[in-house]
Amino acid sequence: MTDHPTVPLSGYREYPVEEMCARALSFYEDVNRRRTVRDFSDRQVSREVIENALRAAGTAPSGANLQPWHFAVVTSAQTKRRIREAAEYEEREFYERRASEEWLETLQPLGTDANKPFLETAPYLIAVFQQKWGYQNGERVNHYYPSESTGLATGLLITALHHAGLAMLTHTPSPMNFLNEILGRPENERPFLLLVVGYPAPDARVPNIARKELAEFTSFS
Ligand code: IYR
Fold it and tell me: Which end of the chain is more exposed for a tag (fewer CB within 10 A), N or C?
């Protein structure tokens, strides 16, 4: 390795194998309870919880540690309404014109349509942006693997919010450049997805769908 500044690896913890197995199983069981939710309550959520989940997201590995993400947190009713209006416009285009028959058929079990009331009902919207490039001392610098990095950070965010006891929807209106305009984000940032966060409505229902079994999505050699 080339010469570079280092510090001791102080955060690593080894567990006895049995404890390791139990932790892996209980973590899986916990994340396996997560469901994408579309029926949200308007109950308020503590900002501290959101901030700590975002801190967790910010621990994701990233290309050259450039952390090429931005999370724009929205609670203002007026901004949520503008986002809903813009998203529903694009979604109407999608459902009525842009989507192929095959795509609409694939979405059928999810029961989705162009109406997105949750964009106003849920207390938090988190618009995730990937930064295609950054700035250092006013100079434009390249970012590497921004999609992969932002995807990893978003996965951590979803896991952290679920762990805290909140429900989410990963929403991807397409195209969603309206998010740059509404949220005043600069041109180096591309919307990645919109996370809708809150408590589920008391009578929330979810599609009757299943996850693949381990053997269906893994191979060992
Ligand atoms: N963006 C649309 C359509 C949609 C597409 C996929 I792929 C989904 O998994 C779910 C929905 C919408 O949000 O309704």
Answer: C
* Mean pLDDT within 26-48: 98
Which ligand 1 atom sits closest to the C-alpha of 114?
A: 14
Quickly count: other Cβ atoms within 10 Å of residue 55's Cβ: 12
What would the pLDDT profile of 147-184 be if each residue is shown by its tens digit? 999 999 999 999 999 999 999 999 999 899 999 999 99
Q: Where are the alpha helices (DSSP H) in the chain?
A: 17-31, 47-57, 77-93, 101-107, 118-121, 146-164, 178-183, 214-217
Mutation choice for ligand 1 from 88, 94, 107, CB with most ligand atoms inside 8 A: 107
Mean pLDDT of 76-96: 97
Alpha carbon of 169 to ligand 1 centroid (Å): 11
Give the dihedral sign, CA 196/202/205/206: positive
Q: Is the CB of 52 under 6 A from ligand 1?
A: no
pTM of the model: 0.97
Residue 107 CA to ligand 1 centre (angstroms): 7
Count CB atoms within 10 A of the CB of residue 88.
Answer: 17
